[in-house]
Structure formats: C-alpha cells, structure tokens
Amino acid sequence: MNFFQSILFPYLHNKKAKLLGLWSIWVWGFILIGVSFYATQLMPLPSYFKGQIKKTMLFNGELMDGPSITIFTAPRPFVGTVGERQALAIRSWLGLSTDISVVLFSQDPSVFSFAELLSHRVSVEPNIDFTFLGTPFFHSMVARSKASSSDVSVVIDPNTVLLPDFIKTIRHAHRLDHDWLLFSSSKSVPHFPFHLDADGKHWLQDDGSRVKTQKLQDFLSQEWKWNLCEEKMLIAWNSGDLPLHKGVLPPFLYGKGLHNRWLINEALLSDFRFVFDASWAISNLYLNDLGQDFDRTSGDFLGLATGKRFWEVAGNSNLAMIYGSLYFHQQNFSNIFRLFQCGGYYLFINSAQMVVYPLRYKGSLSLRKEVMFKLTREKNTLECIDTIRSTEGTKDCSVKNYLNVSMPISLSLSLEILLSLRADKNKTVVLAVVGYSYKDMLMSWVCRLHHLQISNFLVCALDDDIYEFCVLQGLPVFKYANLETKISFDNCHFGTECFQKVTKVKSRMVLQIVKLGYNVLMSDVDIYWFKNPLPLLSSFGPAVLVAQSDEYKLTGPINLPRRLNSGFYYAHSDAMTIAALEKVVEHAANSNLSEQPSFYDTLCGEGGYNRIDDSRCLEPQTNLTVQFLDRDLFPNGAYKDLWQERNVKEACLIKGCFIIHNNWISGRRKKLERQVPSGLWEYDMSTRMCLQTWHKTKFAYF
C-alpha cells in the first residue's frame, strides 16, 4: 500500500460509512412518515369529517365557485329607525357575494317598496303563514326555506349585520360531505359607528374613509355582549337529503322566543345532521337599543303599537313545553362542536371530548398541552382554544325559566277591539262560530280566505280548547262566554241536541255584532269559497237579509218552507235587520229545534205565507226582505250532485260558483271524507300550515 493508498483508503471507507448512515436515516424517515400517515387514517373521526375535502378552485387563497346562498328573514315595516337598521343589515348581506340572494317574508307594502329599490337578488315572499297581526310563523318560514333550490339556506334576524367571515365560513362548511346545520349567536353592541358605501361593498367611517375588516373585528371584540338566551342568532343548513330533525316543528311565532333553541335541541338529539356552533367563526351583530323584547310593565300591554304582545310569548313557551324534548332533555351546548378560525385555519373543537379537528385535514389534534406544545402552530391553537373555553359559560343558559311562564294563552282583546281591527272599509266582517271538533275544517276555511286575500274575518270559539287552538294559530278569536253545554267531538252534527244549542249561538253573535254597527257575513266552516262574495252580497243594500237556499230540487221555488240555510247569510247593520234578528233569536230560544227553522218561520212565515215570489220573502212587521241566493252561484251540498262530480272544483268553476256548502251530509268525519279528497282543502293538519304553491307535496290528514 503506497502513501496515497494509505491516505485515501481510510477516507473512502469513512465516506462510504457516512453515506450508508445517511441513506438509512432517510429510509427510516420515510417509513416513519408512512406509519404516521397510516395511523392518522386509523384514528376515529366523526363520520361527517371523513372525505370532507372536495376539489375546489383557489384564487388568491380564497375559495371560488362557492355555493348559492339564500338568506331568509322576516322584517318589520321599513319605517323610522327600525327600517334604517334593517336596510343596513340587508345591504351588508348582499355586499358579501353575488352568490347571495335574500327573501323577505312579509305582506307589508313598505317591504315590497324596499325590495324594489334593491337588486333582483331581493324578493318578497308573502305566501307563508302569519298571525292576524302580521307576526310570521317560524315553522312556515323554515318550510319555505327548505323548499329553496339554493345550496345553502340561512334564517336570520332582520337587524343582524354580517361581516365578511360569514361567506368564508359558509363556503368552508359547504365542503363537508355530510349534511349539516350550523348556528351562530349574534353579538349585541351598544352602537355601530360605521355605514356602507353606495355599492354596499365597503364599510365607511363617518369621515368617509374605508374601514378594514380587521378594524371591524377589533371593534366587535371590544364592544360585544353575548347571550344565547336572547335567541338572536342565524341558523344555516345545506340542501341535503336528510331532515333537520325528527318529528314536526310546532307553530312557533318568529321572534317571540325559544324557537331557535327548540330547533337546535331537536337537531342535536335527532342526530341526522352534523350540528355545530359557528359563533366564533361568523361575525354577526345587532344594536341592542331597539327595546323589542317583551315587557310586562309596558304601558302598551296589548302590544298593538309596539309589537310586545304577551300572548305570543306565552304561546311559544307553551309549545316548547308540550312538543319535543327541550323541556325534558335540554342539550348542553358545551358538548357540541364549535367551528373557529385560528392562524388562518378553520378548526372544529369539542372541549368536552378534549379534541380538535382541522377542517382541511384528516386527523385530530389532542387538546393536551404536553402533546401540542412542540409546534408554534399548536401553541397558537391552544391560545385560541383557551379563549373559546373561557367564554363557554356565557353561552350556556337554561330555558326552564322561559318555559315556566304563568301567563295565560289569551288574546285579552275584546270583541269591540277585534271588530275595529278586522272590519273592512265598509264595516263588514265575516264570522265563523266553531267548536274544537271542527278545528281542522276551520283552518282549511281560514287558509282559503288567506289565499283569497280576505282578512276581515273573526272566529267565535265555543269552548276553551278551540279558543286556545285559535290563539296559537294566530287567529282573531273571541270566546262565547255563555255556552252551557260541552261540545261533543264527533256527535254535534245536524239533528243532535248539541247541534241545536250550538247553532243558536250563531244568530245571537250576529245580532250582537250588527248592534255594534257592523255588517256580518255568517259562514259555516264547511263552506269552500271559490271567490269573494262580499261585493255581490253587499250590493243588495240595507233592509235585505241575503241567505243561501237549502232547496235540492232542480226546478220550482227555492224559498219553500224551511229552505233557508242559516249557515251562510249576510246581515246589514240597520234598524230593520236588527229588529228581525231579535225576533229570530227570541223564537229560537223558545224552540226545541235548531235556529234554522226559526229563521224561516219568523221571516218567511210558517208554511211560507210571507213569500212574495219564488226567491224572496217579506217580513211584514219589520219590512225586512229575505233574498234567497242563486244556487248555481251558491250551491248547497245536495244541489245537482256537485260533490259527486269527478272534479268538483272544475264543475263549480264552470258554473261560476262563489262557494259550495259541504252540507246535506251528517257527521264531521263524513264531511272530511268528502271534502279532503275533492281537492277543496287548504290545510295540512300534520304540520299546522296552510298549503302553499311552493309545497313540494301536499298532504292532508284526518
């Protein structure tokens, strides 16, 4: 071995050993990475995180081709400060993305006018259920929202301002491959010193300078107060196949408490969808100085001017106690997943399970500090988690205090107040007198009047059950206080003693109302209205009582003895009509029959001796004329066998019918069996909602 060999050999030998060592480190490194990745895949993940990453285009770090989003809300009239606040909120939504459209639930003219001033992305939906004072029903709002074709539906308070992180959060949530429902509690601020520019895309200070998003976030973090019990929150869900919850959503009134908590509680218990709290990921705020909460000490106790109507709050409390599991099994909100941003990443945290799931990665990060302390990102994550956990106590609240409301479910509105609120410009009302056994037919009748845009109706309740039902359904109802008998559910049809007593209430109530100066169209609830008959009926003028004929024969007089149907007649408020009705009521009080024979015998004379032609009678003492209506326009249940037609509606429309009476058949069940399949039915009894054109399917139950 020469000199050079003696020098190079040890060098080459050492170099080779070093290279082999390096190669072994690399190989073992790759093996460890592979084992780690495999182990990560085996870690138990909630099913809604598996396969969550979908291919999405990125542009400047932002998600593109986002989902279509429809935001649904129920604004109050756009007047004064309330209107300004609502306008600011809605413009803040529209400025976030062109993927957002807005639907306003309202029947108020000012809302239509406001929508016309904005883009085509804002529309008004009047075809949901409202109370007679204009409060929308939450279950109808949700049903309409679920019928939307958008990828994501959002229900939100009309005063809530959204900041840009809303659209980012929704786009990330939409990437989950499991159906989901999120909610985000709104933060109240005492003031909000910013406004939108003309385009609605940039926030400005009072001096006109633009405000960066970070400054808005900083302002919100300093000023906000959080109280989940106040029910100010947004709820969003994707348009998946799974329902939001088991069972049926009760007819809660929107904005009157507990409906949001009820929905979230049932969604969590049902476990159909991945339900998570996005309150830390979505910045949404409202000004807390509007004073819209219910106040028992308010001078406007009935709430007709301010909207503080105590019976609406009591109704929601009653429904929350009876339906679902909120009262018996309230979910602990600290035991659900929360979505939040930390260091530019979206993470799900469940502090009860002590685990964090990154939205964009499979796998999990333990909340145990000794494991996460090694990396800077994990340190930042722990700091974010500590911040969230420090505020958890402020978000949990018990609803028991809200459920133990002792207020009665009562309108506390007198008949005189209801008449002043409901009568049309001619001082005319439509009156229905009904007991609980006919609640389903009452609601179909009410829904039909709503579709015809007839709002001047009143309901006289014959028992406590139907009265409470009507209050919860938002109907203008008053109770007849002097009924001396209990209304039978299935045995109060024509010919029964119950029927005789109930029908006599009708004429008494009509007499009471006409004495107060109002015209009355008395209508049974088993009458289907094709179009508004009031213009025709009122055209007969004063001193004429207009009534349906119960004659079934196709030829001959229609005013033969006892063929006046007291289930549909129009009484004008004048001296002659009042005097004649007093005679009818007195006659019925001394009769063992129903009121219907008393009408004919008193006005047309026993045997019909007051008849002046084939369709009229003249009561000689009061000089009141009784006009029997054309049966082609106002057919009874036996006329021309119209109810036997294959298409009852088409047959009636060809004749030009105003109504058709579902009489000449005995019993509530038989009436339903005839009317519901005919298509002359407007109410879904299973969901307590009027059937609308946007319903995907129409069901009727009895």
UniProtKB/TrEMBL annotation:
The transmembrane residues are 20-39
Its domain of life?
Answer: Eukaryota
Q: Which UniProt keywords apply?
A: Membrane, Transmembrane, Transmembrane helix
Q: Which GO terms describe its molecular function?
A: glycosyltransferase activity
Q: Does the keyword Transmembrane helix apply?
A: yes
- Domain Nucleotide-diphospho-sugar transferase stretches: 454-674
Please give the InterPro entries that the UniProt record associates with this protein: Nucl-diP-sugar_transferase, RAY1-like
Q: Which Pfam families match?
A: Nucleotid_trans
Please identify the protein, giving its name as recorded. Answer: Nucleotide-diphospho-sugar transferase domain-containing protein
